[in-house]
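Summary: Need help interpreting a holo structure output

Steps to reproduce:
1. Submit the protein chain below together with the SMILES for NDP.
2. Request a joint structure prediction with the ligand placed.
3. Inspect the C-alpha cell block that comes back.

Expected: a single structure record containing both the chain and the bound molecule.
Actual: see attached output.

Input attached:
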Amino acid sequence: MGRNVIEVLENHSTLKVVAGVDRLSESTAPFPIFETIEACDVAVDCIIDFSHYSVVPSLIQYAMEHRTPIVICTTGLTDETEKHIIEASKVIPVFRSGNMSLGINLLIALAKKAATLLEDDFDIEIIEKHHNRKVDAPSGTAKMIAEGINDVIKSPKTLLYGRHGNETKRSTNEMTIHAVRGGTIVGEHDVLFAGIDEVITISHSAQSKKVFAKGAVNAALFLESQKPGLYDMNHIFSNI
Ligand SMILES: NC(=O)C1=CN([C@@H]2O[C@H](COP(=O)(O)OP(=O)(O)OC[C@H]3O[C@@H](n4cnc5c(N)ncnc54)[C@H](OP(=O)(O)O)[C@@H]3O)[C@@H](O)[C@H]2O)C=CC1
Ligand SMILES: O=C(O)C1=N[C@H](C(=O)O)C[C@H](O)C1
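--- attached output ---
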C-alpha cells in the first residue's frame, strides 16, 4: 500500500511525500526512508499509515508528540490500540477506517438498511476474500460491516468467525464472518441475507489497491482543516 500511496501522490497538485518508514527499505525514493517512525526527523504535515498492527502504537505516540494529524488504515488492531486511538483523537485529528473506498462505505449503508428490513426473517452472513499475503483475519472491513449491522438492528447478533467445530445448527442470533485467502485477490466483501427460498447478496469488489490509496490521500486532505477528533469515511461521504 505504501507504494500505491507514493504513486497516487507522484503528480499531486498540493501534496507530496516527504518521508517514508520501512524497516527493510532498499528504495531509491527521492525522499528519506526511516527504519522506524522514531528515527524520522523530517517535519511532516500528516502521516498516512498502512503497516502492521504491532507498529501502530508507536505511530500514534509519534503523532501525538509531534501534534501531527494521522490517517490510520491498518487493520487487525488490538482493543488496547483502539483505546489509544481514542485518547490520541483528543489531542490531534485522527482519521480511522478499515476500508478507504467509497464503494465499501456505500455497501455498509445498504447492508444496514437491508438488515433493518430483513432481520426477523433472514440469516445474515459475511464473506470476505483477500490475497494470500494478508496477515489478519477477518478483514477490518468485514468487522466494520458486522458492527454497522449490529448498530442498527433490534437484536444485535453474536459474531462468529468461521463455522469449524460447530456441532449445532445455525442460531438466528448469530452472524458469521467467513475469511478466504488466495492469490492476488485485492479485496471482496459479500453480505448475504438468506431467507426462505430467496437470497439477497450485496457485494463489493476492489479492482486495485489504488482505490484505497486514493481514499487515504483524500482523508489526509480532509484532516488538514480539522480540529482534534476521531474521523471516518462518514465524515467525508456524509450524504451516503
Ligand atoms: N483501510 C484500508 O482501506 C486498507 C487497509 N489495509 C491494511 O493496511 C495494512 C498493510 O497492508 P499492505 O500494505 O497490503 O501490507 P504489506 O504486508 O504489503 O505491508 C505492510 C508493511 O508493514 C511492514 N511491517 C510489518 N510488520 C512490521 C513490524 N513488526 N515492524 C515494522 N514494519 C512492519 C511491512 O514490512 P516488511 O515488508 O518488512 O514485512 C510492510 O512494509 C494491513 O493491515 C491491511 O489490512 C490494506 C489495504 C486497504
Ligand atoms: O489487507 C488488505 O489488502 C486489505 N485490508 C483491509 C481490510 O482488512 O478490510 C481493506 C481491504 O479489504 C484490503
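--- end attachment ---

Reviewer comment: Helices lie at 2-9, 56-65, 79-88, 102-118, 140-152, 210-223, 233-236. The mean pLDDT is 96.
Status: needs-info
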